[in-house]
Amino acid sequence: MASIYIHIPFCEHKCIYCDFYSVVPAETGTEGYSQRQQYISSLKAEIEILAENKSCNESIGTIFFGGGTPSLLHPSEIEQILDTLAAHFSIEAGAEITLEANPGTVDKNKLADFRTAGINRISIGIQSFHDDDLKFLTRIHSSSEAKKCVKDASEAGFENISFDLIFSLPGQTLSRWKSNLEQAVELQPAHISCYSLSVEPKTPLFYMIQSRQAAQVEMERDADLYEFTIDFLSSHGYEQYEVSNFARRDPASDFKCRHNLNYWNHSNYLGFGPSAHSFWINERWWNISNLSEYIKKINIRTLPVSEREKLTAAQLMEEAIFLGLRSEGIDLNGFRRKFSRDLSAENERVISELIKQDKIILVNGRMRLTAKGYVICDEICQKLH
Ligand code: SF4
Fold this sequence. Notes:
This protein has 385 residues and is an alpha/beta fold.
């Protein structure tokens, strides 16, 4: 089962911490708005060109609209993109189709129209339930708008609702972060993603930290907040299945994000739109991160690929360790069959030490991180080779 990612490179405003590729139409005036219309045509053309040039004989089990701010699009535009995908790929019945929504860009009717257009999972960028945090992050919505968005999404027919939250904001205390988690679980979303605020080079936040207008949270404090998150969510009915992701335990439904699990299982995926990445068998490629250049390339029926790389067996193996450990664990027999390497035998001493320290466990033939292990995931990856 393969996946498709669609990048929507528009935002109403650029948040201070963000380094995802997007443009702000208001800043580029009329040109920006006409670019948006051209973009939808180009995106559909990119899907056609790729499907004509590449034999993708796997069915598509998940589609993810990310960005940028996909919820800025009109539901009819989402429908057009889904129709184009359906015309060129075999989309599985019951495919998971996610749209990232910014609470400042949707209302109940629009959400209902997204649902009708085929979106069945909505990921809401809440980030914080404190208005001063949202102001600091320069989000375009308030906490009450975020809560209303959750209610609207539920009333619009979405059962599979995910929240994005950010911790380790400058000066954030444990009690303020706890209050965010409490408010999140009270709303009972199907899924919660919690990310530590990362300071990406060349973002306004980066310059604020450099000029001491804001102080970056220390590593120990960040680790404390993260450990607290794991304990809190696991004691409030959420199962951690990846470093940053938690799914509500529900006997009737599995709310883990199938799209992200596909990435972490090293499954094939195709990405469309500027800056989108693709991975197919042993090859990875990514599109140019420039909307005008992207449109120009598509106008001459050329795939807007920036670079390609063929992954060696050693690179694939390293990625399989990293991706497996950060999510649902490494299937040791599958790993042996794929890479002709016995990971557990070759790392016996390291593994038994990590088991003693309660950082990894071996369960049903899988080597998985424990809550303590997730905290030092990168360190553990480096120890295993
Ligand atoms: S809305 Fe999302 S994608 Fe857009 S600038 Fe803010 S964080 Fe980045």
